[in-house]
Amino acid sequence: MAKVLISIPYARCLKTFLDTPIYRELRARHSVTIVSYLADCPGFAESYGGPAVGFQPGAMIHGRLRRAAYALFESHRVMGFLFRWRKRHTWLPWHALLNTSGNVRRRRPWVRAALWLISVIGDRVRMDEVLKSLLGGWIFQDKEVDHLFRTESPDVLVCTSHGSEQEAILCHLARKYGVATILAPNTLDAFLFHGFLAHRYDRICAAGPKDRWLLEHLHGYPPDRIVDLGVISNRYYSSLASEERDGGLRQRLRIGSDARILYYLSVAKAYYTDLLPALDHLLDAIKNGRLADTVIVIRAAPGDDVDVLRRRYGEDPRMRIQIAGPKSVGMVDCPDFTKDVDAEHVEFVETLRDSAVVVMSATTSAFLHAATFGIPTIANVAELSAYPTWSVSPRRNVAWDGMGMFAMGLPVARTLDQLVDKVAERFADPNKDEAVWERILEQWDYQNERYVDDFLDVVARS
Predict the structure, then answer these.
(1) Does residue 115 sit in the same domain as residue 86?
(2) Cα angle 330, 80, 78; round to 5
(3) Residue 183: domain span
(4) CA distances from 220 to 156, 170, 415, 421, 424 (A)
């Protein structure tokens, strides 16, 4: 029995690791300690505990000076990587800043010059590693976590997010105490936009051939230390879909058996301000018969967005509002752990499988889930029309197509009329994009049905 530390720095790591069969088997076979800010949330221990499971509050950097030093070498790590691959695989946001309201404004000239200098040094010298070797012992001081390593003597550290502050501390201590490290990242773009590898991991789990290629060619990671695991959440959702359910989704949503469901995924809407015109346009198309016999189920993040949607569409018989849980949107406060661990995911999977078409606000990882179940999916970038096409604007980011999804044929609507047309086309021919899904899954998901056993083998050999 190995002693395994599992880092959960964000709520979204629950659906990509802790809720999945991988964790359930780890918990059954090994001694596990979960390190997370969620450890003190009511119900967390009951949901994820067990006879050999312990909990440790999340690790964080203390003190302004330490945090400033950490921010400095993280800037070198991320900007240096983007600079190195700027002409082929990435782009640089030197000349603008995206603030929290989604507005884009130009940086001052001296800030742009400083970022350029940080990028060049980060690329040429790997200053992040130099600073980490010199200052890591001072920056990553956390007495409680250090005590955990000394007293528990863990064999393996499992990281579930590439580049988080918590995992910077844990990986520093893992190196200090000779603990093996495994990275199973919670996002598909972990090796493309998140900078150089934040730690010299002993093993890294790749979602698909594209991940492996990025690790080998952009990060110089040894091929024999890559684990071809596949998209963990896809296998998890597939297992949920195979279980017997009550089949009462339409009854709960008050949707007739003959109506088509258009599933609108807008959980990442914080910067996408043109959602309401898109919904209005789709509702008009339903009303005038272009998309007849259709009900829109919009999945939105909790908060102000839901209130706006309820005031505008609450009484509309063609609209249903589904509130995504914190595991889906990655909220940082405490989720409700008194519910069944699978409940939030079951709702999503049931709605997804019963949908005729899925529409995403720009692009999210949901297109891989939809592709797994063969559901036609459209990326609505018309929502981004209010933004400029330069720098870190969401419109610029999506148009760049860094992951190559549009190039592989992912349907994209750039105007509202085009959105209606593409939905109608897929109502008429649900298999229209079958070859597209095969290409995307072939590149981005190994679809490894042995993923649990393969991960456990890596833990046992570490």
Answers:
(1) yes
(2) 10
(3) 3-60+142-230+448-461
(4) 23, 23, 40, 44, 45
* 332: its two tokens: 């940082």
Span 108-131, pLDDT tens digits: 888 888 888 888 888 888 888 888
E strand or H helix at 214: helix 209-217
- Within a domain: 242: no
Cα separation, 285 vs 291, whole angstroms: 5
Three-state DSSP string of 92-149 = CCCCEEECCCCCEEECCHHHHHHHHHHHHHHHHHCHHHHHHHHHHHHHCCCHHHHHHH
**Domain check: are 286 and 409 in the same one?**
yes
Q: What is the pTM of this model?
A: 0.90
Report the C-alpha gap between 193 and 280 in whole angstroms: 34
Q: Residue 3: is it exposed, middle or buried by C-beta count within 10 angstroms (0-12/13-18/19+)?
A: middle
Identify the DSSP state of 59: P
Q: What is the pLDDT of residues 331-387, one digit of tens each?
A: 556 766 766 777 888 889 999 999 999 999 877 888 899 999 999 999 988 876 655
| SS3 state at 371 | helix
